[in-house]
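Suppose you are handed a protein chain with no further information: no name, no annotation, nothing but its sequence. What can you learn? This example shows the usual starting point.
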Amino acid sequence: MPVSRESSEERVGVLLVGLGALSSTLIAGIEAIQQGTAEPIGSLTQLYRCNGDSNDQALKDVLPMARLSNLEFAAWDIFSDTAYESATKAAVLDPTVLEGVRSRLEELRPFKAVVDSNSVRRLKGQHVKAGSLLEQSQELEAEIQAFKEARDLDRMVLVLANSTEITHERGEEAQSRAKFEAALRAGSEKVTASMIYAYVAIKLGVPVVNCTPSHCLELPAITEFANEMGVPLCGKDLKTGQTLMKTILAPGIKARYLGLSGWYSTNILGNRDGEVLDDPESVKTKVNSKLSVLDSILEPTRHPELYGNFYHKVKIDYYPPRGDNKEAWDNVDIFGWMGYPMQIKVNFLCRDSILAAPLVLDLVLLTDLANRTGWKGHQDWLGFFFKSPLLEDQTQPVHDLFRQHIVLEDALTRLRKQNTVRLVETKSATA
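A reasonable first move is to predict its three-dimensional structure. Written in structure tokens, the prediction is:
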């Protein structure tokens, strides 16, 4: 059992499923920030300042979130590369930057990954667990427990940063914990690796952050299990590049009551993510996630004359030379006064892992804080970070970035109040 510590000194384990470009960039960035050689640009938890306070305090100083120096990392991957080797191959960061954090990255070598060959068909790694799905889940559980004990951790958060899985048709295994466990024992092909990671984490009381478009946290079996265990969940699919632009532009179009005829989006990307998405079944999962935002923002049923008949198309193409530097093109056909047509064209040359890493940091710290505050189930307020936010009541999610930000700020206020009360109660009990 971890010893009792002040909240600011509590140690939190970050369990990374996938040690590719995103995870290695995250760890490298956190190390560089602690060394004073980089700034946490893009991180709400590190840069947000609480308006209305007389001294304009930083969020990280107001809420009892884990400190960066108290994060410990473990990872699972289908390749045996250390975080340093993975980062070098991903080529997201400049080699001179990597040299500055090399020792920290070389310390992290992944455990063998849980695999199911039916869900990710383009990658054939050799660093994988043997045995049945049940045996793999038991090995995973033992690894997590051993890691917590070895690093003397107070809590942990599991982050799904693995490759996009094919969406299987749901069956009995999705309906309840008992049926899921039966499917796991039977080695059902509908039980994906992400489901196993999520199931084992929840079983151990560990919150789950799904950064991918995979559907594991949507299953009633998983959601009900998380609520039963008092575990927070959040996802899915980080909102980083093209969809981020849509959730910024579309609210502006709507606010000015401009009409929309069509929105054509195309992407090229390389790296492991692009290779996986070269599979038509995997890319379908990703495209469906990217298509979901416009209807929610524009509300065609309320404004049929403006948005009742627009055409929306999304394409993703694998282009190995581009690596992690994804490029997105958007052609937006709008119309204005008296129906006259106009166009908006956006060419976003982004760095996928650079945009995603600060979001993962924020989600780890905020989900961990929600966990220690007693919040459980789907964390609706974290929809700000995702393309396809998962909600507790399964209603249509809000995709407007600015409305999502208001919801997030309200939740941060509640967290602050609840943790202030908890701190006072704790001090009173020990006085």
